[in-house]
Amino acid sequence: MKPLIGMNLEELQQAVAHCGMPRFTATQIAKWIYEKRVTTFDEMDGISKKNKEKLAEHYIVGREAPRTSTRSSDGTVKYLFPVGGGRVVESVYIPDRDRATLCVSSQSGCKMNCYFCATGKMGFKAQLSAAQIMNQILSVPPKPEKGYEPMHELTNIVFMGMGEPLDNFKAVERAIEILTAPWGLAWSPKRITVSTVGKLPELKDLLEKTQVHVALSVHTAEMSQRESMMPAQKAFPLTAVMKLLGSYDFSHQRRLSLEYIMWRGVNDDIAHAEMLVRLIKNSGIDCRVNLIRYHAIEGVDLKPCSEERMVMFRSYLNQHGITATIRASRGEDIMAACGMLAGKSKG
Length: 347
Fold this sequence. Notes:
two-stranded parallel sheet; 19% strand
């Protein structure tokens, strides 16, 4: 049977019509499954028992709890969600003072095969449906586990989990619609960030059809080096991606971030900082740079650079008028940090 979560209002209207129910019932159902986060039809007050039975003949709510959860010493929690076929995907809950961010997966595995990423080493397994994406969001945080402190309501969603979000754009777009629509969760798009290696033309679609923030995985501005580490560079050259981004306004509400993982002796010197400055200046883009510590994964001969190098790199960018920050590393002890997600538990 089809899950109702993951449906937009029009699809819910079609679903209730299929059950012989008035169209306005769809708005009620949307409120129950998205705002109230019910898991069964029985919890939907205001809908008759007869109509609940009709719905149950053809549909399910579609919520499924995470199979496991693992808590980091820093408060980060990694959840494994079943997505069919014996596969699981990971979501990472990151509490930080007045923020509570969920890092969401959009695919099982990934086609991009970036050299430094554990998800890429898995290869591509399956696309997630809008229902499977929304289930991660609606089912985290669950009731606190014994001994865990109560978790706050989510304040932000980042599509930075397993998979390339723009390689599954229709499902990601549907999830964004549900998150931001008045009949859905009614979030501001400023609470949502989509990460990408720069997949065209879906990036243009994302920019045209949504107002969410964008995070571009750059990691090096030396094009041949980037192609050797990120095969997507060949199909979607960074210069073409930056040209596209340069045609949009990121100086107001919408934000563009460039993600830059730093490896010792690879991309952590002043020469690479200079190339990154030129790339940004030549594009004319208003953006910030997030410098990210590398987290070692099995079978990859890369090492994290020193803290001193990261500070030096950040200072060079700042001195040249580019806002740069060093992102705090979270969840490394449970294999939940950037680049480590591979459908495995630790702890």
